[in-house]
Amino acid sequence: xTFLERPFHPTTLVSLARAARRARxxxxxxxxxxxxxxxxxxxLRVALAAGGLGAWLLDVPTRTLRASDDCKxxxxxxxxxxxxxxxxxxxxxxDDLDRMQAAVRQSLDTGEDYDIEYRCIWPxxxxxxxxxxxxxxxxxxxxxxxxxxxxxxxxxxxxxQARQAALLALGDGLRQMSDPVEMSLLAAExxxxxxxxxxxxxxxxxxxxxxxxxxxxWSVPGAPDLPPRYSPARLWQLHR
Length: 240
Fold this sequence. Notes:
Largest sheet: 5 strands, antiparallel
Strand content: 15-25%
Structural class: alpha+beta
Distance between the termini: 75 Å
Radius of gyration: 31 Å
Shape: elongated
Strand order of the largest sheet: 2-1-5-4-3
Number of helices: 7
Order of helices and strands: HEEHHHEEEHHEEEH
């Protein structure tokens, strides 16, 4: 609202009307930009969900972590559960914690992108793999330095890579052997340690009954038992 004192010149009224119009236009422009921002945030949310990615933000000076629901899920946490930076450190596998913290310090010291894969332990004590990517944002007097990035659960991919590596190692080893006993022991060791089968061994194949009779065992502590007789189809299903 603008007050005019009489008498006023017509040009004054025109000038005020133009100023009011410009102010109103700025309001409409601001509203449009806010709508664009909200639309962009929704598109980003959909894209992250489609890619199986979770978003996170770390306030570096206070070590305050803000994680999306999808990011929490990668560490076995529900949307309503707290998940701050100390919770994140507690979730990282003890054997990978030093490497993870060293990578964070490297990014903060050099400004390099944060890119790491490590194991995490869920509250149910199951072990999973995550890949985390981030970038350092320089601080300002009003905005402290922070890191922003995404997380992804890569447990299935890691398991597939381990199986592929085991089969390649098995193939390389078998090509260098001719003794069936040694070949069976090698297969038992590689498949047992990779596929977490506690009892693997060697024996003979009954083609009529389509059975494999296991006559010797090789054990992996803490893994499930493999009964002494499995059909080849069942063994293949288990190995997959």
